Amino acid sequence: MIRDAALVAGKDLRIEARSRVTINQVAPFAVLVLVLFAFALEPDRGLLTRAAAGLFWLAVTFSALLAIQRSFAIESADGARDGLRLSGLDPAGIFLGKAGAVAVELLALEVLLGAGVVLLYDVELGGAVLLATTCLAATLGLAAAGTVYGVLAAGVRVRETLLPLLLLPVVAPVVLAATRATEAALGQSAADGWSWVRLLGAFAVIYAAVGAVAFGPLLEDS
Predict the structure, then answer these.
(1) Is there a contact between 166 and 67 (Cβ–Cβ < 8 Å)?
(2) What is the pLDDT confidence band of residue 160, given thresholds at 50, 70 and 90?
(3) What is d(CA 193, CA 182) in angstroms, rounded to the nearest whole number?
(4) Domain ranges for the chain
(5) How far apart (Å, rounded) are the C-alpha atoms in residues 161 and 169?
(6) CA angle, corner 211, sides to 105 and 86, nearest 5?
């Protein structure tokens, strides 16, 4: 399973490296979202700074939708999805590989968005360990849940509009928990950020387990 996951993740990341879709389209979109938030709240710089954690995770979530749609779009050309079904790879390995590739792309975007938040929202980064752990746990949860619902919507003609409707309600707890943990890391809240990180970890584990079990049947039906 681990070998198959590494093969699938490597394949997806090589495709993205060659196509540069993440660099040329997803990354500019994510930065543009931050800029639009800044324009919308510019008259109140204090509010912009206080809302920085939530706005950051909203931008990450919107970017995750694009990354997940892209992850399954590359399987739709030239019967690639049929080839994936007939490849003999472990379905759980395929799931972990695709989720892992999405997670790597999102983590790279989060570094870029973090720099954008510092420059645009006048935020001072702090609590490095808590912040890094929050980003890792939340990203794994987003990638795992997104991969489950991505394959569920992959075979539907209206998948571009169906995926957000399926995924956004599910990942709302991730966005909330990640926002609260990030606020604690930035010193904007007195709450215990690690309790929110534990919630993020539980969500990631649950969806990773669900995806490993359900991905095979969902792939066959897509």
Answers:
(1) no
(2) low
(3) 7
(4) 2-221
(5) 14
(6) 90
